[in-house]
Design goal:
Length: 508
């Protein structure tokens, strides 16, 4: 397939996904924060909490509406730009997305109307229930989408049908409860909770810096920082499990995340480092220009054993017999055998030769897990972009650590000191809002760039997944989407900043 077409298709999907992810995490977390605030209102019957709830609910609604628009476009792109992928896995990939649309999306959309427009029209209890159901529905939407994504990273619960040339689901529960899907879901929603907490704390800090709506800002900040600190700890724990699953199921991704070319026993994590841009698989140059390593930490993070061997990029490309790692070349040969067996099966089926069909099917089944390697041209092509994976991972981890410290510091100053006397902390909280988005996007770069060149791990490279359409069509739609999404983002920022400036008291 034309290389430019694949590159433009990837660029368009990356653009849509990254813009979509600007809106989603705030929805995931702010829904729960608003529900907590409304619960306090219902319990206390204090009008202050109703006003506070309605203010943050208004910001939630703006973000929710724009997030829906980008999400729908992204799902359509599976059919328009990735038709081969959709055909190959549609029976599996389509199921969680269908459940998301039928169950979760309709649930959150229905109760969103009650939550936003139902004040004084339904009972307090029903309104509160609606608010909680919107929060839960948003997270259920994320669950089904992340189950689909987790399956791409670790395909399970299916068999390949050579008659239809499709993967067909044979165990729904294996797909839903895949350890990769579960860890990905928990870590992703955790990042949304932390980002929403940063948003609430940062906006509240702006009011305190302006010496406006001080009681509102302090109370909102306490809820935001408490929710943020709890979910930051949850994010660290889920991140540990996510990295463990990557080590077990996608070792090349882990090697790229850490810039690990040579496999190591008792491997340490590079806490801070600058990669050598001249380093390649073939040369013996140092991997880092500068590095600070935490001993044993990578072995423990990846395998929960400080003495574990962590395969490097060279091990995974060239093989390591001592560690039982087969080379990419061997996998490519097995992949070609699988593709040839599929062709033999199709020919035998046309000739109605059942004996040959059965023989071909046995060979295909034996080599199917390497099927995608049969389309790889060079062994080095299985190495993802190391620098992008490495820096994205370390930016995500570094910022996540900072957010945990920030929430703890804010809570300490709110409860033990007078936070108004610490403007540097308030400014740090305000400027941490965009850092939250950077960390969240960096996490997705690690997840998706780190598994390249695979659309489905080991089964289908991205180049085979794309639709055969005119490159010009993809280019035109790329720029249309780029303009459209940028306009939507600018509109959201303008509307939100206007609402924030008006404040919870309508500017009074």
């Amino acid at each position: 397939m034309e290389e430019h077409l694949v590159d433009w298709s990837r660029a368009q999907f990356a653009l849509t996904a990254m813009y979509h992810w600007i809106f989603v995490p705030l929805t995931l977390g702010l829904g729960f924060i608003v529900a907590i605030m409304e619960t306090i209102y219902v319990k206390t019957n204090d009008e202050f909490w109703k006003k506070t709830t309605k203010f943050w609910m208004g910001l939630f609604a703006i973000n929710f509406a724009i997030g829906v628009a980008t999400g729908i476009i992204m799902e359509f792109e599976f059919g328009t730009n990735w038709a081969n992928y959709s055909w190959f896995v549609g029976d599996i990939f389509g199921a969680p997305l269908a459940v998301e649309g039928i169950l979760a999306f309709f649930m959150e959309s229905t109760f969103f109307a009650v939550m936003f427009f139902g004040w004084n029209k339904v009972s307090k209890g029903f309104h509160l229930l609606s608010t909680w159901l919107v929060a839960v529905g948003s997270n259920l939407s994320a669950l089904w989408i992340l189950v689909a994504n987790g399956w791409m990273q670790y395909p399970v619960g299916m068999t390949f049908n050579p008659d239809t040339i499709r993967n067909e689901m044979n165990n729904f529960w294996d797909v839903l409860l895949s350890p990769v899907a579960i860890s990905k879901f928990l870590h992703t929603i955790g990042s949304g909770y932390v980002l929403a907490s940063l948003f609430v704390v940062g906006v509240s800090a702006w009011y305190l810096l302006k010496k406006r709506d001080i009681l509102f800002a302090k109370k909102s900040m306490i809820i935001g920082a408490t929710f943020g600190l709890i979910t930051s700890i949850f994010l660290i724990l889920s991140g540990d499990e996510s990295a463990h699953q990557v080590a077990l199921k996608q070792p090349m991704k882990l090697a790229a995340m850490e810039g690990l070319y040579e496999g190591e026993k008792d491997a340490g994590i590079v806490a801070i480092g600058i990669l050598n841009p001249n380093k390649t698989l073939e040369n013996d140059e140092e991997t880092f220009l500068f590095e600070f390593t935490v001993p044993y930490a990578l072995s423990f993070l990846g395998y929960h054993d400080i003495n574990a061997y962590v395969p490097g990029i060279k091990d995974l490309v060239y093989g390591n017999k001592e560690q039982g790692i087969i080379s990419t070349e061997e996998k490519m040969q097995k992949g070609k055998i699988a593709i040839e067996a599929l062709e033999s099966y199709k020919e035998a089926k046309k000739a109605k030769d059942e004996e040959k069909m059965n023989k071909a099917k046995v060979i295909l089944d034996e080599n199917m897990k390497y099927f995608g390697y049969g389309h790889i041209k060079n062994a080095e092509d299985v190495i993802p972009p190391v620098a992008l994976s490495f820096y994205s991972f370390h930016i995500m981890v570094g910022l996540g650590t900072w957010f945990t410290i920030l929430f703890a510091l804010v809570l300490f100053l709110l409860t033990k000191k007078e936070i108004l006397n610490y403007p540097i902390v308030l400014k740090s909280a305000l400027f941490s809002i965009p850092l939250g988005y950077i960390a969240s996007e960096a996490g997705w770069v690690v997840a998706e760039v780190g598994r390249q060149p695979w659309a489905i791990q080991d089964l289908m490279p991205v180049g085979i997944a794309a639709t055969k359409i005119a490159t010009t069509n993809v280019m035109i739609s790329f720029f249309i989407f780029a303009i459209l999404f940028t306009v939507l983002l600018i509109a959201e920022i303008k509307i939100m900043t206007k609402q924030i400036k008006i404040g919870p008291n309508g500017g009074h």
